[in-house]
C-alpha cells in the first residue's frame, strides 16, 4: 500500500445507523452520523489521497482512498471514485465532492480486521471460525495473507480493474447498481448507465435507443435449446460458437457483478446454461453458468451468476445443482473453476453440505469418500473440505476417515444454515443428453 498522506481513526458503525457515531481522538469530538464535519470551502483532493466519505448505505463517514477524479458534464461538479478502507471493492463508487471530507487525524498503518457487532475486542477466532466469518462478511484477504504468486496476480488484476465507470444498468424492469469494472468497448465502457435488452442482451448508451430497440427486437427468449422447463422456470443451453455475440454480451454484463471473471470475448469453447423466469411477455434472464466443452481440469462449471434482483431466492443453488445433474448424466465428477467469488463460495459450501447431510442421515453401514463422490458427482477434494467444515472428518494414519454420528448429523440438519434448498432440480423435467465424443483415428 502506498504511504498515507493523512491518518484517520474511526470506530465501527453501530447496528442502527441513527445511533452510529464517529470519534476523532485528537480533537476529542464525537460526530453524529447526521452531522457534517467541518470542511474548507476550497477543499480539493487528488488521486491517492485518504479522506472521509459519507456512505448513503449507513449514513456514516468512512475512511476511503481517492482512486480517480472526474468532472460531471451535466453540472460541471467534481466527482471522486473512492475505495472504502476494509470494504469489498464492489462497494467502490463515484461520489460528489460534498460527500468527501478530511480531518487532521490518523488512519492506522495497517487495516484492522472487520469485527461483527457481537465480537468483543478480546475475542479470539479459530482458523475455521475466521474463514467462515470472512466468507459470510465478505472480508477480503490482505496481500500479506496471500502467497506471493497470488498476491502479484491480485495486484495486477486490481490495477487493471480499479475504476468502475458503468455505475448502473437497466435490464428489463430493473435498474441495477454495478459492482465491478467491465470492459465494454469504446464509449460504452465510459457511460454512467447502460441500457440492456433482457432478451438479446444488446447494450445501448441512450434510453431512447433502448426504447426503440424494444419495439423491434424479435427475441423473447435466449437463443439455443430449451433443456429444462418446470412451471415458470426454464433453462436454455446456448453454444458459444453458434451464438457468439449473445454470449459475449452476457459475459460483459456478468462482469459488472463478478470481480475475477476473465472470459469476455473468447466464448466459442464454452456452453452457457441460461436460467430464466417465464411469463406471457417472454423468458426473463435470471442468471447462468458456463462450462467448458472440454475441461482438462475436470471442471463442471466455469462461471456462475445470479443477477442481483434474483439473489437470495434459491436460484444460485439451483444452478449449482443443475451443473451436478448434468455431471451425473455424463457419469463424471466435477468441481467449479477457481477462484470462486465470495458469494459463490458461500453457495457452494451450503449446497455441498446439504447434499452430503441428506445422504448421511439415511446412509447405514460402511462407506467411503469415493462412494459419496460417485453418488453425488462432487469431487473427493470438495467432499473432504466440506466434511472438515462440519467436523465430520479426521486425518488418521495417513488417510481421511469419516467420523459421523446420527446425533451430529441431526444437529447440522436442524440448523438454518443447512436447510433444504428453496428450489430443487426435477430431473424428470430435464431434456438433455451428453454430446457423443467422436474418437479421432490415428493414421
TrEMBL record:
Stretches the record annotates as Disordered: 19-39, 109-133
CDD domains assigned: NAT_SF (cd04301)
Organism from which the protein derives: Paramuricea clavata (Red gorgonian)
Enzyme Commission number: 2.3.1.48
Protein name: Histone acetyltransferase
Keywords, in A-Z order: Acetylation, Activator, Chromatin regulator, Metal-binding, Mitochondrion, Nucleus, Phosphoprotein, Transcription, Transcription regulation, Transferase, Zinc, Zinc-finger
Composition bias type Basic and acidic residues, residue spans: 109-125
Taxonomic placement: Eukaryota, Metazoa, Cnidaria, Anthozoa, Octocorallia
Gene3D superfamilies for the chain: 2.30.30.140, 3.40.630.30, N-acetyl transferase-like, Winged helix-like DNA-binding domain superfamily/Winged helix DNA-binding domain
Localization in the cell: Mitochondrion; Nucleus
Pfam family for this entry, one: MOZ_SAS
Amino acid at each position: 500500500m502506498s504511504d498515507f498522506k493523512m491518518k484517520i481513526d474511526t470506530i465501527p458503525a453501530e447496528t442502527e445507523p441513527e445511533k452510529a457515531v464517529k470519534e476523532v481522538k485528537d480533537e476529542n469530538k464525537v460526530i453524529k452520523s447526521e452531522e457534517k464535519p467541518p470542511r474548507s470551502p476550497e477543499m480539493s483532493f487528488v488521486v491517492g489521497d485518504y479522506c472521509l466519505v459519507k456512505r448513503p448505505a449507513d449514513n456514516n463517514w468512512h475512511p476511503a482512498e481517492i482512486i480517480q477524479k472526474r468532472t460531471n458534464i451535466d453540472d460541471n461538479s467534481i466527482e471522486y471514485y473512492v475505495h472504502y478502507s476494509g470494504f469489498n471493492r464492489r462497494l467502490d463508487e463515484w461520489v460528489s465532492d460534498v460527500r468527501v471530507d478530511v480531518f487532521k487525524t490518523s488512519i492506522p498503518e495497517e487495516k484492522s480486521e472487520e469485527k461483527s457487532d457481537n465480537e468483543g475486542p478480546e475475542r479470539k477466532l479459530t482458523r475455521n471460525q475466521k474463514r467462515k466469518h470472512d466468507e459470510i462478511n465478505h472480508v477480503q484477504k490482505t496481500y500479506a495473507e496471500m502467497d506471493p504468486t497470488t498476491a502479484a496476480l491480485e495486484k495486477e488484476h486490481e490495477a487493471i480493474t480499479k475504476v468502475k465507470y458503468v455505475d448502473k444498468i437497466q435490464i428489463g424492469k430493473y435498474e441495477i447498481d454495478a459492482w465491478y469494472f467491465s470492459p465494454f468497448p469504446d464509449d460504452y465502457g465510459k457511460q454512467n448507465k447502460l441500457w440492456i435488452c433482457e432478451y438479446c442482451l444488446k447494450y445501448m448508451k441512450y434510453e431512447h435507443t433502448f426504447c426503440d430497440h424494444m419495439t423491434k427486437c424479435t427475441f423473447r427468449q435466449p437463443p439455443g435449446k430449451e433443456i429444462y422447463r418446470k412451471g415458470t422456470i426454464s433453462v436454455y443451453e446456448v453454444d458459444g460458437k453458434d451464438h457468439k455475440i449473445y454470449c459475449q454480451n452476457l459475459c460483459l454484463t456478468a462482469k459488472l457483478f463478478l470481480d475475477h471473471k476473465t472470459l469476455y470475448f473468447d466464448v466459442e469453447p464454452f456452453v452457457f446454461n441460461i436460467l430464466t423466469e417465464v411469463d406471457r411477455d417472454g423468458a426473463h434472464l435470471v442468471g447462468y453458468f458456463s462450462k467448458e466443452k472440454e475441461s482438462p481440469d475436470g471442471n463442471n462449471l466455469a462461471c456462475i451468476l445470479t443477477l442481483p434482483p434474483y439473489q437470495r431466492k434459491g436460484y444460485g443453488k439451483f444452478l449449482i445443482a443443475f451443473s451436478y445433474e448434468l455431471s451425473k448424466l455424463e457419469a463424471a465428477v466435477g468441481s467449479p473453476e477457481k477462484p470462486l467469488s465470495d458469494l459463490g463460495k458461500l453457495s457452494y459450501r451450503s449446497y455441498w453440505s446439504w447434499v452430503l447431510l441428506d445422504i448421511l442421515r439415511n446412509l447405514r453401514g460402511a462407506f467411503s469418500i469415493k462412494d459419496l463422490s460417485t453418488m453425488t458427482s462432487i469431487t473427493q477434494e470438495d467432499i473432504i473440505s466440506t466434511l472438515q467444515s462440519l467436523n465430520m472428518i479426521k486425518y488418521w494414519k495417513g488417510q481421511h476417515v469419516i467420523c459421523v454420528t446420527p446425533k451430529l448429523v441431526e444437529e447440522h440438519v436442524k440448523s438454518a444454515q443447512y436447510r433444504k434448498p428453496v428450489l430443487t432440480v426435477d430431473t424428470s423435467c430435464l431434456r438433455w443428453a451428453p454430446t457423443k465424443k467422436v474418437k479421432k483415428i490415428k493414421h
